[in-house]
Amino acid sequence: MNIIIIGAGKTGEELISSLLSEGHDIAVIDPLYSVIENILETYDVMGICGSGVVTETLGEAGAPDADLVIACTPQDEINVLSCVIAKRLGARSCIARVRNPELNAQTHFMRRELGIDTMMNPDYYAAHAISRILRIPSATKVDSFAGGRLDMVQLKVAADCPLVGTALFQLPAKCKTRVLVCAVQCAGVADAIVPSAGYVIQAGDILSLTATHADIHRFFREIGALSEPIRDVLLVGGSRIAYYLSETLLESGMHVKIIEQNQNRCVELSRELPKARIICGDGTDHELLIEEGIRDMDACIALTGMDEGNMILSLYAMSEGVGKVIPKINKTALLTMSSHVGLDSAISPEQLTADMIVSYVRAMGQSGDSAIRTLYKLLDGQIEAMEFMVQEESASVIGIPLSQMKLKKNLLIAGIVRGSRVIYPGANDQFHAGDIVIVVTSALHLSALSEILAE
Question: Which residues contact 344 (CB under 8 A, 6 or more apart)?
Answer without folding.
Answer: 140, 141, 154, 156, 338
